[in-house]
Amino acid sequence: MTRSDLGAYLTARRAQVTPAEANLRSTGHRRVPGLRREEVALLAGVSTDYYIRLEQGRERTPSAHVVDALAVALRLDEDGRQHLFRLAGLSPSTRTAAGTGPVDPSLLELMDAWPHNPAIIYNRACDVLASNTIADALFHDWTHSRNLMHVVFTDPAARTFYQDWHDVAVNSVAGFRLGHGQAPADPRIRQVLTELLERSPEFIELWARHDARGKALERKRFRHPDVGPLTLTMQTFDVRSSPGQELVVYHAEPASASRAALALLGSLAVTGRQHG
């Protein structure tokens, strides 16, 4: 019996939902975390035997109605629901590449016009395709890697740089899983996945959770060696002209210590570029 990606995802999601969250009474000793298989089947309106076949990979073609019911039973958000539909073969995988094409020149000009707002453009493989001067300064001129997953999981300084490293790691893996589900055959995405599985036990543990969602962190706390602590709000936008690319812009609250630190970082970055 071969376990399917669909079955693995259902199993992982089932383990994340408690009986209380599903409005079920918890009775007797529970041998598994989260919901039992028969409880998911009950909530989704399918037979227990059918649901077991889905998890075991013996049934891989559920109807859209069943998938929708499973998404409700497992309390999936919209990203998770779309991921479930893709795994069930009911939503086409993206045929475009990971978003490695050139960045629109007008978008680069716009990013350069934000001297106090770090801005980056990355693709589904989390490769940073473009960044403005202050973003380069914030991320240490990308000396470790221009791949955000490598920065989080393979840079020894990451746990100091990201003050809430575990939250950043969880959300990074969930976003990478979503991109992987959209273009699972893309060679660059598969290369990054292989590298992380080989080099990071923490990534392996989080990858096994099968979280799949877009950028969920709205605020990040950094500790920069030159300007100290920074708390920045993060906004993420799809680049409509280049599917697979996303624009992330950071900003600090007005009149805050982080705003002053960000302004200092921008000045240092410009001075460094001029001297360079």
Protein described:
47% of the residues lie in helices and 11% in strands. The chain has 276 residues and is α+β, with helices and mostly antiparallel strands. It has a five-stranded antiparallel β-sheet with strand order 2-1-5-4-3. The radius of gyration is 21 Å and the shape is elongated.
Tag the structure with descriptive keywords.
single chain; 276 residues; alpha+beta; five-stranded antiparallel β-sheet; 5 strands; 47% helix
Helix content: 40-55%
The SSE string, one letter per element, is HHHHHHEEHHHHHHEEEH
Secondary structure class reads alpha+beta
Overall geometric form? elongated
Largest sheet: 5 strands, antiparallel
**How is the largest sheet built, in terms of strand order?**
2-1-5-4-3
Cα radius of gyration in angstroms: 21 Å
Q: Please tally the helical runs, counting DSSP H or I stretches of 4 or more residues.
A: 13
Number of strands: 5
In brief, what are we looking at here?
The chain is an alpha+beta fold and 276 residues long.
